[in-house]
Amino acid sequence: MLKSFKATVLRFLEKGGFVRSSHLALSFMFAIFPFCLFALSLAGVLSPQAKVDDLVNFAIGAWPDAISGPIESELRAVLQAGSSTVTVGALLAIIFASNGVDAIRLVITDAYRETDPRPFWKTRGLSILFVIAGSSLFVIAGGVSLIVPLALHYFDEFVPWLNQSILSNEDFRQLVTISISLFFLYACHKWLPGVKHKTGDLWPGILLCVILWWAASKAFAFYISSFSTYSVTYAGLAGIMSALVYLYLMSAIFVLGAEFNGQLMDERRRAQ
C-alpha cells in the first residue's frame, strides 16, 4: 500500500495535480456561497423553527474559525433578512453551485483515466441533482434541530443525562461531521463518473481523503492562529485569502485521494 501511495504522489505531480487543484478550489469558491445561501434559505423556509446559527454551524462549522467566521457573518445577514428561495437568483445559485459539482466529476474521471460518455445535459442535470440533494440535508437538519430538543425534553425526566450527553458532546458532533464527509465523498466517487465502479474500489481513496482533510484542517487552523500574517498582508481581504488557500489545500487532498483510487485500479488491471 505504501508503494502504491508513493506512485500516487508521482502520478499527482506528473498529471498536473496542483493545477487541477487550483481549478477545483476556484470552482468551490464560486460554488460554496451560492450553495449555502440556497440550502440554508430553503431549510429556513421549510422549517421556520430552525435556528439560523444551528444551520450555519451545520454548513461550515467544521472549518477553522478564522476562515468560517467572515463567511458565517455574511450568511447570517442574508438569512436573517428573510430572502426568498423561489427567485431567479436562487436558480442562478443552483447553476453556480452545480459548476463546483461538475468540476469534481471532471477531476474524478481524469484520475480514473476514463472518459465520460454521457452528453452535456445528463452531466449538468446530475450536478444540479447533487446540489438539490445536498440542500435537502440542510432541510433535514432544520427539522432535527426542532425535533431532537423536544424529544430529549420529553425523555429528560426518565434519562436526565441524555440531554447533556448528546447536545454537548463535541466528539459526537465530530462523528456526525466525519459521517457526512464520508457520504459526500462516496456519492461523488460512486455516482458522478460516467463509468461505475465497485464500492470496494472506492473506499481506499475516500478514507485517505478524510484522514488527510482532518489532519490538514488541524494544521492549517494552528498555522492561521500562530504564524499567519494574512491580516497584515491582505487587510480586509484576509478572510477571503485564507478561505481560498484552505479550499486549495482541501482540493489538492481530494485530487490526491482520487488519484490513489486510480493508481490502485491500474495496478489491479495490470495484475489480471
From TrEMBL:
UniProt key word Transmembrane helix: yes
For membrane topology, the record states: Multi-pass membrane protein
**UniProt keyword RNA-binding, yes or no:** no
Which InterPro entries would you find in this protein's record? Virul_fac_BrkB (IPR017039)
Location of this chain's protein in the cell: Cell membrane
Record-annotated membrane-spanning stretches: 21-46, 86-108, 128-152, 172-192, 204-224, 236-260
Query: Cellular component GO terms, alphabetically?
Result: plasma membrane
Q: Which UniProt keywords apply?
A: Cell membrane, Membrane, Transmembrane, Transmembrane helix
Pfam families recorded for this chain?
A: Virul_fac_BrkB
This one is known as YihY family inner membrane protein
Please report the organism this UniProt entry assigns to the protein. Shimia marina
